[in-house]
Amino acid sequence: MQLLHGAVRSYAWGSRTALARLQGRPIPSDHPEAEIWLGAHPADSAHVVHDGGTVPLLTLIDEDPAAQLGGSAQQYESRLPYLMKLLAAEEPLSLQAHPSSAQAREGFARENAAGVPIDSPVRNYRDPNHKPELIVALGEFEALAGFRNPAETVELLDALAVSALGGYRTLLAEQPDASGLRTVFTSWITLPGQALDDILPAVAQGCIDYLSGPARTDGGRFAAEAKTLLELGESYPGDAGVLAALLLNRVTLAPGQGLYLDAGNLHAYLRGTGVEIMANSDNVLRGGLTPKHVDVPELLRVLDFEPADLRPITPGDRDRPTYRYSTPAPEFALSRTAVAAGETITVSGSGPRILLCTSGTVTTGTSDQQAGLTVAQGSSVWIPAADENITVTAGSVEAEVFVASVGNV
Known about the structure:
The chain contains 12 helices and 22 strands. It has helices at 18-22, 57-63, 65-69, 72-75, 101-113, 150-160, 166-174, 178-189, 193-212, 223-235, 240-244, 296-302; strands at 2-5, 7-9, 35-38, 47-50, 53-56, 82-89, 95-97, 133-137, 141-147, 248-253, 258-261, 267-279, 285-288, 322-325, 333-339, 344-347, 353-359, 362-365, 373-375, 380-383, 390-394, 399-405.
């Protein structure tokens, strides 16, 4: 078991305060910090403290996959199958989806055959893997995720009363299913610039009129959606992704709640800080709300247009002190444990694990390790498969730890 130093990723939508504050570093940070990668992804491996220095976790695994990964080494071709992250969004992320395994393999082979460099900014598939993911909120976390039930979207369009959207409203009312959603989304995401310049200001005005409220009779049911549309329109003027946001569920997670997103699920995180875990992939198909590469035809190939009722995964009081977030993904599992001040617990599970402390301070140890490791808030440790019987002891205040592991171990 060794201390693990994550790789900080700076993107424009990140925060100059959230991750630095969590880790006790000076505020503000020099650049917006969006993610801290805790894993062995080839694009940016975390580093373990090893023999008086640090070494990439990817290198440590390559040198002895059996000891580091255990039984999952053979199953996952000597790769750590998951990637854990700390994520902080101060501004909305891109409108995006991730491919299925079959789509990722086909797309990766196709771009390789076409000679597109792996690090090219127009590359869609950087590996042949799918990317299911789970986000767990550390504070209030807001997102757009999954296509809303078309009947509810019709009610939203009625509430905004934008005449330019009348034809689309009628289409959804007459075809309230995946086919109707596909038609409307495809129409909106491919609108030419002039058409967007006409429609988007009308949508913004509809949101303003709705929020001003004199004619509103629904108690402000769609206030959050209207505010989000205005914010997106201000951040991304002329972007078709603003229209697409009209079709998506708006989700607010309370601290500790999780949201699981499978292949083909259109989503955009809006703001907040959370712990994220996913299959060890960096395949993203973007449709808007970003200055990065957007490939609408490829996005349409992978999207799942079935309406999704994405309910947050909510731990209950009976789940203390440990709650395990259940997902169908075989590559990863995630648990959250509250450790009372001075209490010692045993970390369950086996195989390669990453322990992340998100509040308080803990000391970790094993049955054969005399001196424990002190893990401060925002810090993490790598637990190879060879290490068993891991204990965690909280300091003078209650602590919270997340443990990532392989899902089917």
